[in-house]
From TrEMBL:
Source taxonomy: Bacteria, Pseudomonadati, Pseudomonadota, Alphaproteobacteria, Hyphomicrobiales
InterPro entries assigned to the protein according to its UniProt record, in alphabetical order: Nase/OxRdtase_comp1 (IPR000510), Nase_comp1_asu (IPR010143)
Gene3D superfamilies: Nitrogenase molybdenum iron protein domain
Molecular function terms, GO-annotated: iron-sulfur cluster binding; nitrogenase activity
Residue ranges occupied by any Nitrogenase/oxidoreductase component domain in the UniProt entry: 1-167
Protein name in UniProt: Nitrogenase molybdenum-iron protein alpha chain
């Protein structure tokens, strides 16, 4: 897993361990070389993203692999799921999420919308099919399939792009112009027929 510095470091160390002390020492040099970059990214974006709640619904491995990249920025994954997953995808995902995280499988647009209304995330990361309905709900959105023509998000340089893009999505002032469904004030129904 090469999404986010914590997983990049763990992956480099795990790979290097198979090749002996010389390669392990080189892996540590690579980690040290990029620690200034990742520290600067975290220092810049942590105050803006810390505590923000994220829901994911992405194909492939990304629902579990990007979780720690969000967490490296202080964000919390409150829901994640797959459109085309296998049993082992869910078993592996369980290692990445915290207890209480909603995990869903092959949800319909209606189901995802209801999950969003119930969980009330600050950001949804999904595919193009979900993008516009989520945005119409007044929820910041990042397309995680093609990275909304940005990215890449993997690797050290990609983490800086990832952090910038999540900040641009969550903290964009356009969201102040919309109310999420749970923020809308409902008017009481009109009383019966005129007397």
């Amino acid at each position: 897993n090469f999404f986010g510095p914590s997983q990049i470091e763990a992956s480099l160390r795990q790979i290097a361990k198979h090749f002996g002390p010389e390669i392990e020492e080189r892996a540590e040099r690579v980690i040290a070389k990029y620690s200034g970059l990742t520290d600067a990214v975290i220092d810049k974006y942590w105050p803006r993203l810390h505590g923000k709640r994220v829901m994911l619904y992405v194909g492939g491995l990304r629902p579990r692999h990007v979780i720690t990249a969000y967490e490296d920025l202080g964000m919390e994954i409150v829901g994640t799921g797959y459109e085309f997953a296998h049993n082992d995808d869910y078993q592996r995902t369980g290692h990445y999420v915290k207890e209480g995280t909603l995990i869903y499988d092959d949800v319909t647009g209606y189901e995802l919308e209801k999950f969003i209304e119930r969980i009330r995330p600050d950001l949804v990361g999904s595919g193009i099919k979900e993008k516009y309905s989520v945005q119409k709900m007044g929820i910041p959105f990042r397309q995680m399939h093609s990275w909304d023509y940005s990215g890449p998000y993997h690797g050290y340089d990609g983490f800086a792009i990832f952090a910038r893009d999540m900040d641009l999505a969550v903290n964009n002032p356009v969201w102040d112009l919309y109310d999420a469904p749970w923020q809308k004030v409902t008017m009481p129904a009109a009383s019966g027929a005129a007397e």
